[in-house]
Amino acid sequence: MVRFITSLIFLVSLALFYSVYISPEFFPYVGLITLTIPVLLIINALVFFLLVLAKRKLAILPLIVLLAGWKFVGITFQMPKEQSDENGLSILSYNVALFSYSRNNGDSKETNKNIIKWLQDNPSDIKCFQEFYQDPTTPSRNAIKLLGTDQGYEYSYQIIEGKPRAKSYGLAIFSKYPIINEGKVFDTRRNNGVIFADIKVDKDTLRIYNAHLESMSIESENLNNLDGIKENYRQTLKKLKNGQVVRASQLGILEEHMKNSPYVNILVGDFNDVPYSYTYFTLKKYMNNAFEKAGRGFGFTYNKVLFFLRIDNIFYENPLNALQFKTHKEVDYSDHYPISASFSWEKPLQKINPEETID
């Protein structure tokens, strides 16, 4: 019986580890299954410990699983590293949730003032925003002026919904350095999409992608408490499945665009996907993740009851080197925490073959 259970756990674990490379377009529920990977790692560690105590040779099976699954440990938790004193290009990514204007509580005005003030004080060279809200008719809500032109930043703002001269929301990139080209990769005409900006940093040029992939489409009110999640679990599972499929399709468009980029790419944003996903592992094939290289702790970025999610990321290509990465958990004005990273590189910066991108 012990042999059967251990063997079953072994086979299921290896199958799950491989499933992160399967597109949800072919198997829609694969993204939900991979969420159990951390649990299986814990189970295998426990089984290994018990079998070693019992002096059973069968302990080799959970040991193989733990060795094969070690890559999932690195994307989940990072030990504190010595932070570099080197100054590099700094980038901030933040889903600002429309600057809380949609809130119907008395704290919305104060929250809005606080988030604007924090963003004005943040010294990052490049700032990327998802769910960016712009209202040029109201001075206190003219975010492009407050965060961009008044602060000495050039900007690229791509509207997803609304009109250019009226209230609108979309994706924005602000830069202290010149933006020499910009564009839209795609948008859903709802609230998701990807934009890019080519930014000239001294004599080098980088392409910055700002992404907001398909949302889970779960109402925030349903995530405020566990009872709401339980009551709507069937609907929630269906939305999670549909989101996985749409993100896989969006990822294909984004991949093709990045491969045709003439510059070294940095990809930031709200991916609405955890590290144990097809989205994450597809990007890891040819990009590095700043949290893995320079982060610490768990780096959770979601500010709701499901606090254990890391769905915001900063990916980058070689020969860039991540010096620092931080999740700003002290900034709780949105349902996401801001994340930031800084980079250095050997000059001149040259794009290299994608197959040689990963360290």
From TrEMBL:
Q: Which CDD domains does the UniProt record give?
A: EEP-2
Q: Which UniProt keywords are given for this protein, alphabetically ordered?
A: DNA damage, DNA repair, Endonuclease, Hydrolase, Magnesium, Membrane, Metal-binding, Nuclease, Transmembrane, Transmembrane helix
One Pfam family, please name it. Exo_endo_phos
Check the record and name the Gene3D superfamilies matching this protein. Endonuclease/exonuclease/phosphatase
Q: Which InterPro entries match?
A: Endo/exonu/phosph_ase_sf (IPR036691), Endo/exonuclease/phosphatase (IPR005135), TDP2-like (IPR051547)
- Gene Ontology molecular function terms on file: endonuclease activity
Occurrences of domain Endonuclease/exonuclease/phosphatase (ranges): 92-336
For activity, the cofactor(s) needed are: Mn(2+); Mg(2+)
Which residues span the membrane? 29-51, 58-77
Using the record for this protein, list the coiled-coil segments as residue ranges, or answer none: none
Question: SUPFAM superfamilies, per this entry?
Answer: DNase I-like
For this entry, the protein name equals Endonuclease/exonuclease/phosphatase family protein
Organism, scientific name: Fontibacter flavus
